[in-house]
Amino acid sequence: MLERLQHFEDAGNESFFLWGARQTGKSTLLKSLFPHSLLFDLLLSEEFERLKSNPKVFCEIILADTEKRIVIIDEIQRIPELLNEVHWLIVNQGTRFILSGSSPRRILRSETNLLGGRALRYELFPLVSAEIPDFDLIKALNSGLLPKHYLSTNYKRLLAAYIGNYLKDELVREAQLRSLSIFTRFLEAAAFSNGEMVNYSNIATDTGVSSNTIKSYFQILEQTLLGRFVPVFQKRPKRRVIQAPKFYFFDVGIVNHLLKRGTIEYKSESFGLAFEHFIYQELYAHSHYSGKDYLISYWRTASQLEVDFVLGIHEVIIEVKASDRISSRHYGGLKAFMEEYKVKKAIIVCTEIRPRKVGDIWVLPWKNFLEQLWSNQLI
Q: What CATH fold (topology level) applies to the domain 4-123?
């Protein structure tokens, strides 16, 4: 089982931010790794009110700690002003801080102290396959991979509560949006666009607001770590390529609920869409957790040739097909890309039983692909 501890090994004795969407397990992880730390939980109303009204009290508490413990501030974005005190304590007292939160948006928009590069940045994602003994793909595609959801038999109700209490109500408050109903329609329209090229005009028409408003809503999802864009790969293209980015929510379970997909079964249309989304989640988490931080982009030409994921500067190209019978019709995008760029590895991730190689293209069952990914054999 992959230990999340290893993601923070290179932090040494440095302070760091740990960002991640709600319920990815940040608090549980930090309490496990640093059980003797001095913890400030800003979700607790009493703690929040005391430090919000007088941030200097925070500094006084730290100075009075004779044990000089590591200090954890959970949900730091709720009181960005504390970062001034944190900065002073790092510089003048050598205090080590771990600052966790579910939304960098409020800190970035407040133009508050970002510690001048004195804190590293990490991010925690939903669970990945390598962390789960006896990983169940169908369960993951249905429940998503937030720990509480994946481990529950009642994940549909948990997803409904997560979206109702967090994605809607809290985001509306944080972003100071005027209309919950409009933002709810936007979330549903964005879910229909999940894994597809983003067309702001179409979503604006469906939602009843301007394209600029839709762009700002997508920015909110990015800044609250609830989704991210996949840019177009367009290094010296010979063919005319599509310019629009794709967008993926941070967890496949969220999309399932927003689209009311019902139960996803093997070989269904929903299975194919969720399968590609799952592979993207694994790639993005690996890029960060491995420390390689390689770019993930996609490639699509005006003539509809496409490669789902291009890793790095075209080192690895990946096509995801929910099929157990890969044939020549599935190779077109990869072959077209290789006519323009030199690649180290071209892969079709699929549901076949055994790996095989067709010319320069590897056909990998998803289990083999994930084993290679998490053992750092791909890139």
A: Rossmann fold (3.40.50)
